[in-house]
Amino acid sequence: MAVxxxxxxxxxxxxxxxxxxxxxxxxxxxxxxxxxxxxxxTPLPKEEAxxxxxxxxxxxxxxxxxxxxxxxxxx
Length: 75
Known about the structure:
Blueprint: H1 2-25, H2 31-34, H3 56-73
């Protein structure tokens, strides 16, 4: 088991080193080429107001209520 952990550790170290070295020796692509490809350069569309039943907070409350009911039933 220890061999697997050491192998995983050294694989991580080598992967990080290769990633850093390759990143340092390559030129970054221009922003125009990365537009609509990366989150930071993509313009976000305006969201309309959603009805109450399509909001994440409502569904989080539903899940929490179901969780509490199941806990009470199987207590």
